[in-house]
Amino acid sequence: MVRLKNFLLTVVLMFTGLNANAQIIIVNSSYGLIQFKITDADKKELAFYGTGTSWIGAIPSKVTYQGEQYTVTSIDDYADFNTYGKTVSSITLPATIKKIGDYAFSASEFKTINLSNSVEYIGEGVFTDCDNLQKVTVNSSFIIPAGTFEGSLQLTDVEIKNKDNLYYTSVDGVLYSKQQDTVVYFPCGKKSSSFQIPETVKVIGNGAFYNCSLQEITIPKSITHIMERAFQYPLDNKLQKITCLSPNPPTTELDKFGRSCFYNGSTSKPTLYIPYLSKTAYQQAEVWKDFTDIQYLRDVITVDTTITACGGFTLNNKNLQTGFYSDTIHYENYDSIVNLTLIVKEPVKTYINANIYDGEEYSFAGKNISAAGIYYDTLEANNSCDSIIILHLSVNAKDTVINIVHDTVTNTVHDTTILTQIDTITLHDTIINKITLYDTVTLHDTIETTLYDTVTLFDTI
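Below the sequence we write its predicted structure tokens.
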């Protein structure tokens, strides 16, 4: 692969009319023998071009050549990272690198590559066909072209280190757009046999699952579009099951050769699982109609509801209290899941104690009541429990009202005292006992007694 890259570089230089040797300088630095290309003689800028036999796996930020100091600002297209049989498992670029050319690390032997936070641009196919590459760490913001990682079958993790990256984020090593609405790349070295695309994703990117070893993939109903080459050439044709949860087939793209995003190089196709009653739509849609084995999924309809009940709630002959309840109803190819959040409230009760006399009435709940007893009235509420008013009504016999007379009783009594069949009256200073009568005793300013029997006063009046 290294010789192929050198051959391609020579072809490129010859095609552009450049002299390959005229552009190259060899520097014996502290990192070993390294080849550079002068990219800007005035600014004294260099591009890393290739390694020598003594290279020890690092790139300097500055080198001195013919008495002049140069800054290493880029890695050349098809750069040669030949390790000459040495074990060089990782490389961290200097902070001066701004650009990485096309296929720069392609077919290199590194296990990890850490891109410095100064990188502003990478070309096409930068990490393709890296047989040992397991992790790539990105510390800055730049556009990652489609196909950047193709053929690196051991890659398990693309990490977006800087949280302020303008374009991308990573979750468990999977590369997504910043808003997580596009899955950009699923590392082919991940050991999972199945993967469910998150429901935040709307688009499956160009070559996102290219050459992956997944056996099953679940496409959520949020997906509206699948770009070219998205699922092409699954490794060893392991992809056997595709579940698409959308009742409407997502739109798809063909590659430049007219092949579908599911093209696998053979006539066999994975089994496609789709929602119940969606088969006609898929059989009429481009690309989807090429699937020969289409199976129905059981549709799951989820209903979430909240009920506020007063005093209690009965469901399926069970009295339920406040809490969360879930039930699944099976019908043909449908599963209906009902999730109930129940809030049971007690009615607000107000108690009233009231007294009336014989012959009187009490107004309650729009009625006049004259009989003793317990009465109820309900005030209905729109958004909460009703209010219940409970009336305890007592009816008393008409007894004579007795005015308490202060001071010792003399010949003057305040106002009028009416005594009816009362045995004993207690005044503050004088006790009048044993008043036996059948009619009325009227006491005015001067005591006047009208009676049919006797009044016995044991003390002085």
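The helical segments are 2-15, 20-23, 279-284.
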